[in-house]
Amino acid sequence: MTAIGIVKTLLELNRAQWLPTEELRRRSEARRLRLLRHAVQNVPFYRGLDINHLPVMDKSAYRNHPPEAFAASNLPAQRRMEKATSGSTGVPFRFEVDRAALPVAFASQLSYDSWIGLRPFDRCLRIAVPPPPGSGGLRMLPWLQRVHDRFTQDRISIWDIDAGRAEDIWRRIEACRPEFVFGYTSTLATMADLLLRRGLRLSRSLRGVIATAETLSPPRRRLIEQYFQAPITNRYGLREFGWFSAQSCAASPERFHVNTELAVCEILRPDGSLAEDGETGRIVLTDLWNYARPFIRYDTGDLAARPEGSCSCGRGFPLLGPIDGRTDECLTTPANRVIRPGSLAYYLFVYNRHTDDVRHYQIVREGNRRVTLLVVPGDAWNESAAARLRDEMSKLLGPGVEAGVRTVAEIPPERSGKRPIIKTLEEVH
User: Fold this and answer.
1) How far apart are CA 424 and CA 341, in angstroms?
2) Cα distances (angstroms) measured from residue 197 to each of 177, 385, 426
3) Around Cβ 56, how many Cβ atoms within 10 Å?
4) pLDDT tens, position by position, 128-162
5) What is the pTM of this model?
6) At 401, which CATH number?
7) Which end of the chain has fewer surrounding CB within 10 Å, N or C?
């Protein structure tokens, strides 16, 4: 796609966001049917299947088949660009994106930026884990995006953040004077906490903060807002797709608009049926642009509510969320109650008002019988707060679960750079 093609795609995405929801649904359905017909004709795994009854697939299901089972036979191998997920969910996964879709991904990034007043040549500081060796970095992107990113983005690659690294980032922000900062939710929250404690405030206000990759829990949101003094935009996407499938807006900061020009989103119950309005289920996505190695009805492992109504911002893109963590982050009690990360965060920090007591936290589960809440103490922390948290955890989890609270100096990240809210003991070591 040429530069003119990228600009046309950007203009069309910006126009589409204001179309009526029903018209957007028709456009999305037409794209979906084209993709499915292509798959059943040219992709070995789907060849001959009924397009109305294609299976839901997760990472494990893809890994159970050879990679060539999902490669379109009518497209050249050069169309496929190999990538990999971090394995932060416990299932490392190699996959391929369609090179022909990379310009669309760039146009969608610019379109999302425009929602929050970020103009094409405003500066943005990206805080992220280093790209994997051999990934190609900027060289693999469309030339126009390479030029854009070199002139507009200052990148900091880190695996973990401590007081020294936080101060280095503060100096970089002061020096490059970005309009926006972009990063993992927990990294931004940890950085904000460390800089607040050191009294290192920004001399110039940002226009916004873009958080991604992890649940924006109440404590994390509070720390980011307290330090940056700027509105937070939350983006949701999958590395497997190569772009963000949804973004929050100022009118719905706790929810997301699904970009139906890029993906089809289903919210499914455990039995595979569609969830009703207000019901939480698994997020299942279909990438509408990857023809070389399609992702069709892909179980993301994430959970979200299917919200009721429309957004007052006027965008026709349907709402999603709030996103309530991952299926493998959920706690299951002996009574078979499933407690999601978002529900846990609301219970502890909104309903029971522990925001001032806790700076950061993580639940460590040992089977179904023992759960420990790791806490990086806040300014109001004391033994009374610890006792209340222990009691409230016990009430939430019910009989048969031993609940504990332990203070720690920090919550270390996983290899991916993420800090899951709920994890098993095996993942800690």
Assistant:
1) 13
2) 22, 21, 32
3) 14
4) 877 655 555 545 567 778 777 777 888 888 766 77
5) 0.77
6) 3.30.300.30
7) C
